[in-house]
Write a structure and sequence with these properties.
Blueprint lengths: L5 E5 L6 H12 L2 E4 H14 L7 H9 L3 E4 L2 E4 L2 E2 L7 H10 L3 H12 L7 E5 L2 H5 L5 E6 L2 H14 L6 H17 L12 E4 L5 H20 L1
Parallel strand pairs: 1-6, 1-7, 2-6, 7-8
Antiparallel strand pairs: 3-4, 4-5
The structure holds cytidine-5'-diphosphate (CDP) (2 copies).
Length: about 220
Protein backbone atom coordinates (compact mmCIF):
# COMPACT_ATOMS: atom_id res chain seq x y z
CA UNK A 1 0.00 0.00 0.00
CA UNK A 2 1.39 3.34 -1.07
CA UNK A 3 0.40 6.54 0.75
CA UNK A 4 1.98 9.05 -1.62
CA UNK A 5 -0.81 10.34 -3.88
CA UNK A 6 -0.54 10.14 -7.65
CA UNK A 7 -2.68 11.99 -10.19
CA UNK A 8 -2.51 10.12 -13.49
CA UNK A 9 -3.24 12.11 -16.66
CA UNK A 10 -3.42 10.08 -19.85
CA UNK A 11 -4.61 10.80 -23.35
CA UNK A 12 -3.69 11.01 -27.02
CA UNK A 13 -1.05 13.27 -28.51
CA UNK A 14 -1.60 17.04 -28.12
CA UNK A 15 -4.65 16.62 -25.89
CA UNK A 16 -2.93 18.96 -23.42
CA UNK A 17 -1.62 16.36 -20.94
CA UNK A 18 1.83 17.86 -20.52
CA UNK A 19 0.64 21.42 -20.10
CA UNK A 20 -2.18 20.52 -17.72
CA UNK A 21 -0.02 18.10 -15.70
CA UNK A 22 2.72 20.70 -15.18
CA UNK A 23 0.24 23.35 -14.01
CA UNK A 24 -1.61 20.96 -11.67
CA UNK A 25 1.73 19.86 -10.19
CA UNK A 26 2.77 23.49 -9.68
CA UNK A 27 -0.56 24.34 -8.00
CA UNK A 28 -0.38 21.40 -5.60
CA UNK A 29 3.39 21.54 -5.08
CA UNK A 30 3.68 17.96 -6.44
CA UNK A 31 6.47 16.31 -8.42
CA UNK A 32 5.98 15.85 -12.16
CA UNK A 33 6.59 12.87 -14.44
CA UNK A 34 6.43 13.48 -18.18
CA UNK A 35 6.59 9.81 -19.16
CA UNK A 36 6.46 10.67 -22.86
CA UNK A 37 9.81 12.43 -22.42
CA UNK A 38 11.32 9.09 -21.33
CA UNK A 39 10.05 7.41 -24.51
CA UNK A 40 11.31 10.37 -26.54
CA UNK A 41 14.75 10.17 -24.88
CA UNK A 42 14.89 6.45 -25.63
CA UNK A 43 13.89 7.21 -29.23
CA UNK A 44 16.61 9.83 -29.59
CA UNK A 45 19.18 7.46 -28.07
CA UNK A 46 18.15 4.73 -30.53
CA UNK A 47 18.91 7.11 -33.41
CA UNK A 48 22.23 8.21 -31.85
CA UNK A 49 23.38 4.65 -31.20
CA UNK A 50 22.01 3.23 -34.44
CA UNK A 51 19.57 0.76 -32.86
CA UNK A 52 16.77 -0.23 -35.24
CA UNK A 53 13.19 0.58 -34.06
CA UNK A 54 12.15 -3.07 -34.50
CA UNK A 55 15.04 -4.63 -32.55
CA UNK A 56 13.18 -5.04 -29.25
CA UNK A 57 16.02 -6.80 -27.39
CA UNK A 58 18.66 -4.22 -28.34
CA UNK A 59 16.22 -1.41 -27.54
CA UNK A 60 15.54 -2.81 -24.06
CA UNK A 61 19.29 -3.08 -23.40
CA UNK A 62 19.71 0.51 -24.58
CA UNK A 63 16.91 1.70 -22.27
CA UNK A 64 18.42 -0.13 -19.29
CA UNK A 65 21.74 1.67 -19.82
CA UNK A 66 20.16 5.02 -20.67
CA UNK A 67 22.01 7.83 -18.90
CA UNK A 68 19.34 10.48 -18.43
CA UNK A 69 18.60 13.24 -15.93
CA UNK A 70 15.72 15.66 -15.47
CA UNK A 71 16.16 18.92 -13.65
CA UNK A 72 14.30 22.22 -13.72
CA UNK A 73 12.25 21.12 -16.71
CA UNK A 74 15.32 20.12 -18.74
CA UNK A 75 16.03 16.63 -20.05
CA UNK A 76 19.61 15.47 -20.50
CA UNK A 77 20.90 12.50 -22.46
CA UNK A 78 24.51 11.52 -21.67
CA UNK A 79 24.97 14.87 -19.89
CA UNK A 80 23.79 16.97 -22.85
CA UNK A 81 20.61 19.07 -22.72
CA UNK A 82 18.24 17.67 -25.39
CA UNK A 83 15.02 19.30 -24.08
CA UNK A 84 14.14 20.96 -27.37
CA UNK A 85 15.51 18.20 -29.62
CA UNK A 86 13.16 15.60 -28.14
CA UNK A 87 10.12 17.76 -28.98
CA UNK A 88 10.56 17.28 -32.76
CA UNK A 89 7.68 15.38 -34.41
CA UNK A 90 10.13 12.80 -35.88
CA UNK A 91 11.25 11.97 -32.33
CA UNK A 92 7.61 11.66 -31.19
CA UNK A 93 6.84 9.34 -34.09
CA UNK A 94 9.91 7.21 -33.38
CA UNK A 95 8.97 7.14 -29.68
CA UNK A 96 5.58 5.75 -30.67
CA UNK A 97 7.29 3.13 -32.87
CA UNK A 98 9.58 1.84 -30.09
CA UNK A 99 6.84 2.09 -27.43
CA UNK A 100 4.98 -0.84 -29.01
CA UNK A 101 7.57 -3.28 -27.62
CA UNK A 102 6.75 -4.83 -24.25
CA UNK A 103 10.52 -5.21 -23.60
CA UNK A 104 10.99 -1.44 -23.93
CA UNK A 105 7.98 -0.66 -21.72
CA UNK A 106 9.12 -3.10 -19.02
CA UNK A 107 12.58 -1.52 -19.00
CA UNK A 108 11.00 1.87 -18.19
CA UNK A 109 8.65 0.83 -15.35
CA UNK A 110 11.02 1.25 -12.38
CA UNK A 111 12.36 4.57 -13.65
CA UNK A 112 8.81 5.91 -13.85
CA UNK A 113 7.72 4.64 -10.42
CA UNK A 114 10.82 6.23 -8.85
CA UNK A 115 9.23 9.64 -9.47
CA UNK A 116 6.60 8.92 -6.81
CA UNK A 117 7.79 10.97 -3.84
CA UNK A 118 6.21 13.05 -1.09
CA UNK A 119 4.10 15.14 -1.12
CA UNK A 120 2.73 13.67 -4.37
CA UNK A 121 3.15 13.15 -8.08
CA UNK A 122 1.36 14.21 -11.23
CA UNK A 123 2.23 11.78 -14.04
CA UNK A 124 1.21 12.16 -17.68
CA UNK A 125 1.38 9.71 -20.57
CA UNK A 126 -0.60 6.86 -22.07
CA UNK A 127 -0.61 4.18 -19.35
CA UNK A 128 -0.12 6.09 -16.09
CA UNK A 129 -3.55 5.10 -14.75
CA UNK A 130 -3.73 1.65 -16.35
CA UNK A 131 -0.24 0.18 -15.82
CA UNK A 132 2.31 2.34 -14.00
CA UNK A 133 0.18 3.77 -11.15
CA UNK A 134 -3.00 1.63 -11.02
CA UNK A 135 -3.55 2.86 -7.44
CA UNK A 136 -3.52 6.55 -8.46
CA UNK A 137 -5.94 8.54 -6.30
CA UNK A 138 -7.23 10.34 -9.41
CA UNK A 139 -7.11 9.19 -13.05
CA UNK A 140 -7.97 11.63 -15.79
CA UNK A 141 -8.26 10.81 -19.48
CA UNK A 142 -7.91 13.94 -21.61
CA UNK A 143 -9.31 14.00 -25.11
CA UNK A 144 -9.86 16.60 -27.81
CA UNK A 145 -10.89 16.37 -31.45
CA UNK A 146 -8.10 15.45 -33.86
CA UNK A 147 -8.55 18.85 -35.56
CA UNK A 148 -8.16 20.75 -32.28
CA UNK A 149 -5.08 18.69 -31.43
CA UNK A 150 -3.46 19.17 -34.84
CA UNK A 151 -4.06 22.93 -34.63
CA UNK A 152 -2.53 23.07 -31.14
CA UNK A 153 0.49 21.03 -32.13
CA UNK A 154 0.96 23.19 -35.24
CA UNK A 155 1.02 26.38 -33.20
CA UNK A 156 3.31 24.83 -30.60
CA UNK A 157 5.82 23.59 -33.20
CA UNK A 158 5.97 26.94 -34.99
CA UNK A 159 6.51 28.70 -31.64
CA UNK A 160 9.40 26.35 -30.91
CA UNK A 161 11.00 27.16 -34.26
CA UNK A 162 10.19 23.86 -36.02
CA UNK A 163 8.56 23.83 -39.44
CA UNK A 164 5.08 22.27 -39.55
CA UNK A 165 2.37 21.55 -42.09
CA UNK A 166 -1.26 20.99 -41.08
CA UNK A 167 -1.93 18.16 -43.56
CA UNK A 168 1.18 16.23 -42.49
CA UNK A 169 0.34 16.80 -38.82
CA UNK A 170 -3.23 15.54 -39.21
CA UNK A 171 -1.98 12.43 -41.00
CA UNK A 172 0.77 11.77 -38.42
CA UNK A 173 -1.59 12.34 -35.48
CA UNK A 174 -4.14 9.89 -36.87
CA UNK A 175 -1.40 7.35 -37.53
CA UNK A 176 0.03 7.77 -34.01
CA UNK A 177 -3.44 7.55 -32.36
CA UNK A 178 -4.09 4.38 -34.31
CA UNK A 179 -0.76 2.76 -33.34
CA UNK A 180 -0.91 3.85 -29.68
CA UNK A 181 -4.52 2.65 -29.32
CA UNK A 182 -4.19 -0.68 -31.10
CA UNK A 183 -0.88 -2.02 -29.79
CA UNK A 184 -1.02 -5.12 -27.60
CA UNK A 185 1.27 -3.73 -24.88
CA UNK A 186 -0.38 -1.07 -22.70
CA UNK A 187 -2.62 0.42 -25.38
CA UNK A 188 -3.88 3.97 -25.03
CA UNK A 189 -7.28 3.64 -23.35
CA UNK A 190 -8.96 5.17 -20.33
CA UNK A 191 -8.66 3.22 -17.07
CA UNK A 192 -12.03 1.81 -15.98
CA UNK A 193 -12.09 4.34 -13.12
CA UNK A 194 -10.81 7.34 -15.12
CA UNK A 195 -12.63 10.64 -15.41
CA UNK A 196 -12.95 11.77 -19.02
CA UNK A 197 -12.24 15.39 -19.87
CA UNK A 198 -12.73 16.69 -23.42
CA UNK A 199 -10.58 19.81 -23.73
CA UNK A 200 -11.62 20.73 -27.32
CA UNK A 201 -13.54 23.76 -26.08
CA UNK A 202 -11.73 24.33 -22.78
CA UNK A 203 -8.97 26.80 -22.01
CA UNK A 204 -5.88 25.46 -20.27
CA UNK A 205 -6.95 27.13 -17.00
CA UNK A 206 -10.41 25.52 -17.17
CA UNK A 207 -8.86 22.08 -17.66
CA UNK A 208 -6.42 22.63 -14.78
CA UNK A 209 -9.20 23.83 -12.45
CA UNK A 210 -11.32 20.77 -13.27
CA UNK A 211 -8.47 18.38 -12.44
CA UNK A 212 -7.59 20.18 -9.20
CA UNK A 213 -11.28 20.22 -8.17
CA UNK A 214 -11.64 16.50 -8.85
CA UNK A 215 -8.52 15.86 -6.80
CA UNK A 216 -9.78 17.91 -3.84
CA UNK A 217 -13.18 16.17 -4.00
CA UNK A 218 -11.47 12.79 -4.03
CA UNK A 219 -9.28 13.64 -1.04
CA UNK A 220 -12.32 14.93 0.89
CA UNK A 221 -14.39 11.82 0.14
CA UNK A 222 -11.46 9.53 1.09
CA UNK A 223 -11.32 11.23 4.51
CA UNK A 224 -14.94 10.38 5.24
O1 LIG B 1 3.39 14.85 -26.54
P1 LIG B 1 2.78 13.68 -27.24
O2 LIG B 1 1.47 13.30 -26.66
O3 LIG B 1 2.79 13.78 -28.70
O4 LIG B 1 3.70 12.43 -27.03
P2 LIG B 1 4.47 11.99 -25.74
O5 LIG B 1 3.57 11.92 -24.57
O6 LIG B 1 5.70 12.79 -25.62
O7 LIG B 1 4.83 10.48 -26.15
C1 LIG B 1 5.48 10.12 -27.34
C2 LIG B 1 5.12 8.68 -27.66
O8 LIG B 1 5.61 7.84 -26.60
C3 LIG B 1 3.62 8.38 -27.72
O9 LIG B 1 3.08 8.50 -29.03
C4 LIG B 1 3.50 6.97 -27.20
O10 LIG B 1 3.58 6.00 -28.23
C5 LIG B 1 4.72 6.79 -26.31
N1 LIG B 1 4.33 6.80 -24.90
C6 LIG B 1 3.85 5.62 -24.36
O11 LIG B 1 3.71 4.63 -25.05
N2 LIG B 1 3.54 5.56 -23.02
C7 LIG B 1 3.66 6.63 -22.25
N3 LIG B 1 3.36 6.54 -20.96
C8 LIG B 1 4.12 7.86 -22.78
C9 LIG B 1 4.44 7.91 -24.12
O1 LIG C 1 1.25 16.60 -23.74
P1 LIG C 1 0.31 16.62 -24.90
O2 LIG C 1 0.94 16.13 -26.17
O3 LIG C 1 -0.98 15.92 -24.63
O4 LIG C 1 -0.10 18.12 -25.18
P2 LIG C 1 0.58 19.50 -24.75
O5 LIG C 1 1.94 19.57 -25.34
O6 LIG C 1 0.43 19.74 -23.30
O7 LIG C 1 -0.41 20.53 -25.45
C1 LIG C 1 -0.37 20.81 -26.84
C2 LIG C 1 -0.64 22.31 -27.06
O8 LIG C 1 -2.03 22.55 -26.85
C3 LIG C 1 0.13 23.23 -26.12
O9 LIG C 1 0.71 24.29 -26.88
C4 LIG C 1 -0.95 23.79 -25.20
O10 LIG C 1 -0.67 25.10 -24.80
C5 LIG C 1 -2.20 23.70 -26.04
N1 LIG C 1 -3.43 23.53 -25.26
C6 LIG C 1 -4.52 24.32 -25.51
O11 LIG C 1 -4.42 25.15 -26.39
N2 LIG C 1 -5.71 24.17 -24.81
C7 LIG C 1 -5.83 23.22 -23.86
N3 LIG C 1 -6.98 23.11 -23.19
C8 LIG C 1 -4.72 22.40 -23.61
C9 LIG C 1 -3.54 22.56 -24.33
Amino acid sequence: FHQTPVIAIDGPTASGKGTVAALVAAQLGFHLLDSGALYRLAALASVRYGVAPDDDQALAALVNDLHITFWEGCAELDGVDVSSEIRAEEVGNRASAIAVHQTVRAALVARQRAFRKEPGLVADGRDMGTVIFPDAVLKVFLTASVEARAARRHKQLIQKGFSANMDDLLRDLRERDERDSNRAAAPLKPAADAKLLDTSALSIDQAVDQVVNWYRERIESNKQ
